[in-house]
């Protein structure tokens, strides 16, 4: 008899996850929630969002593994009491997030965003290459992903600043912490990359007030969550010249509706929530480890602090 892991996601491929897990552990069966015959046989869940009826029918559930690094897509108050939740940390996700952050930073730094617009306008406007020393990059959220982004930018030669809730130390990165140090952090950056966890404290943190604290002509890259950004404030800050451009991967509504004003701003590059990508073949090892830990009643890897919200 195989042991059952429930799978629930409309965004991810159950077959790819099932194969990746079975390749390592043939005794484990990943079963899409629609195909579960006996809810009481389910020991563990791998999910982006829960099945429409919730999780209360799965009375022997020992642990939940989010199919992402973020958990804000789940209603943390609606999870079965006492069932622990872990977020996903994997090299495939970190690598893709770092690549995206580097690509977005270099594009703004070297003016490719401007040159793209000049190309369309048939304009030849020579400008010498800027110096990295004059282009400090700030990373909001220096946890697993933001920390890797900050280190990669430092290794490329940018002056890098980081901001987090609690004090952090990353070699070669000037670290700031807490709301009291946010203005000082923002004032020093030419480009800010948001990789924060989304919680009630960080929702709407990219707004008119924070844009006003940045240097005039700064850039914004959002790879955290759409709800971190007040989209109307960004458009207004771009129209006012306070923000020179933005690269946005996440939005308050996804898919971003075709009539959204963001599409009308040539200074904004939209990508469809593709910054980070998890490879099942790589992340299956963590899912299996957390399955084992959960059934043994041990703390899972990257367990979520439900009170803190991330
Ligand atoms: P971590 O939990 O490792 O890091 C979260 C960071 O946010 C930490 O540095 C934390 O501070 C900081 N933070 C949380 N609350 C506050 C606050 N009130 N003030 C200041 N800083 C705060 O998460 P990951 O790095 O793994 O992931 C970060 C986010 O990236 C995810 O939550 C998700 O939303 C997003 N993401 C987006 C993807 C995409 O494709 N666009 C893909 C994957 C993730 P501290 O260090 O002090 O705890
Ligand atoms: C995640 C995401 O949280 O893909 O992992 O957004």
Question: What this model shows, in words?
Answer:
The structure is a single chain. This protein has 310 residues and is α/β, with parallel strands linked by helices. It has 2 domains: 3-89 and 278-295, NAD(P)-binding Rossmann-like Domain (Rossmann fold, 3-Layer(aba) Sandwich), CATH 3.40.50; 91-270, Rossmann fold. The protein has helices at 14-24, 91-109, 112-120, 144-156, 178-187, 208-213, 231-239, 280-296, and strands at residues 3-8, 28-32, 42-47, 63-66, 85-86, 137-140, 160-164, 173-177, 191-194, 218-222, 243-248, 268-270. The strands form 2 sheets. The protein has a 7-stranded parallel sheet with strand order 8-7-6-9-10-11-12. A 5-stranded parallel sheet has the order 2-1-3-4-5. Strand 9, helix 6 (208-213) and strand 10 (218-222) form a beta-alpha-beta unit. The structure holds NADPH dihydro-nicotinamide-adenine-dinucleotide phosphate and oxalic acid. Oxalic acid binds at residues 68-70, 276.
């Amino acid at each position: 008899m195989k042991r059952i892991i429930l799978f629930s996601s409309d965004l991810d491929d159950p077959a790819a996850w099932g194969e990746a897990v079975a390749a390592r552990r043939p005794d484990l069966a990943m079963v899409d929630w629609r195909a579960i015959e006996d809810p009481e046989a389910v020991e563990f869940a791998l999910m982006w969002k829960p099945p429409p009826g919730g999780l209360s029918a799965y009375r022997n559930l020992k642990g939940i593994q989010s199919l992402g690094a973020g958990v804000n897509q789940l209603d943390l108050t609606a999870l079965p009491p006492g069932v622990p939740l872990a977020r996903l940390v994997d090299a495939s996700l970190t690598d893709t997030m770092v690549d995206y952050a580097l690509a977005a930073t270099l594009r703004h730094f070297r003016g490719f965003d401007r040159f793209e617009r000049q190309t369309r306008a048939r304009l030849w406007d020579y400008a010498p290459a800027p110096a990295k020393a004059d282009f400090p990059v700030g990373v909001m959220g220096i946890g697993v992903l933001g920390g890797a982004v900050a280190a990669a930018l430092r290794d490329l030669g940018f002056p890098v600043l980081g901001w987090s809730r609690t004090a952090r130390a990353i070699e070669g990165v000037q670290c700031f912490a807490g709301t009291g140090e946010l203005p000082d952090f923002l004032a020093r950056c030419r480009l800010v990359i948001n990789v924060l966890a989304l919680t009630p404290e960080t929702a709407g943190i990219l707004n008119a007030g924070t844009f006003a604290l940045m240097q005039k002509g700064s850039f914004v890259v959002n790879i955290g969550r759409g709800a971190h950004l007040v989209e109307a404030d960004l458009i207004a800050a771009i129209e006012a010249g306070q923000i020179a451009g933005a690269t946005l991967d996440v939005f308050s509504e996804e898919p971003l509706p075709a009539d959204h004003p963001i599409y009308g701003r040539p200074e904004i590059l939209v990508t469809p929530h593709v910054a980070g990508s998890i490879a099942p073949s790589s992340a299956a090892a963590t899912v299996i480890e957390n399955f084992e830990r959960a059934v043994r009643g041990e703390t899972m890897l990257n367990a979520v602090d439900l009170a803190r919200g991330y």
